[in-house]
């Protein structure tokens, strides 16, 4: 799936040393520990920052590896949300839920149009309901 490609690109950009691998089939406890790890937190904090020695943000590199000039803007926004949700320590899962993903898509679409990618600090991600339906695009293992 597209989400799997975004996830694969994210892990390749950070590398195993900087961001240990995790799979959707891993236990809830393993996912919780992975999200709480210093490496995951560091990757989350760096996602919208420039890569060392470049003017390219980590999230922009994900887009470079997974998208092209013909990729619709909503698909690029979905890539950003997928990576953001995967690393977000405030979200208990690594598979995005529709109520979390849907409101973020137009925000990142607008940022892409304005060439100004950044994390929205005022968005609430707390209180995710465990039994919500998964968004049709999930982070699948290959």
UniProtKB/TrEMBL annotation:
Compositional bias per record (Acidic residues), positions renumbered to this chain: 127-142
Protein origin, superkingdom: Eukaryota
UniProt region (Disordered), positions on chain: 118-142
The name this protein goes by in its record: 14216_t:CDS:1
Source organism (scientific name): Dentiscutata erythropus
